[in-house]
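Async update (no meeting this week)

Hi team, since we skipped the sync, here's where things stand on the single-chain job. The sequence we agreed to prioritize is pasted below, unchanged from the tracker. I ran it this morning and attached the output directly underneath so nobody has to dig for it. Comments welcome in thread, and please keep replies under the output.
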Amino acid sequence: MFLYYKIFTFVTINIFTMVNIEEFSKRLIIIMDYYEISAALLAEKIEVQRSSISHILSGRNKPSLEFVLKILKTFPEVELYWLLNGEGKFPKQDTSIGSAPTPTPSMSKKIEVVKGELISTQSNKITSDIERIVIFYKNGSFKNYTS
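Output:
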């Protein structure tokens, strides 16, 4: 057990000493911009103190393993290697068949606008043929209904 702990600690320390804190901070800002959240809201979502976010963004502190794992758990679109060293893509590209990308806040706004248009066309008694309806679920899956 002690050997496992030592190896794990060694690997953890080596991984985080190689992380460029300035670049990590930039990627953290990219995540916040993507989800349209503030540093305070990010701290709330990943359940850390606001000062932790502030210290990482300012370059005072490096992220802990726990911090990185909380980011990955809360935001599944974030790839580990992209977050740590900029390799890979953000958001993750899902290549599985039958699943849709996770909706972003900006996508939700577009859906609300479309709903508003549908409601207004119903109240004006404008008829049009519906070609297709797609329902997106929070888990990333979807159902496609065609006429």
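Quick observations from my side:
The helical segments are 2-17, 21-35, 39-46, 50-58, 65-74, 80-85, 105-123.
Confidence is low (pLDDT under 50) at residues 7-14, 118-124.
Reply here if anything looks off.
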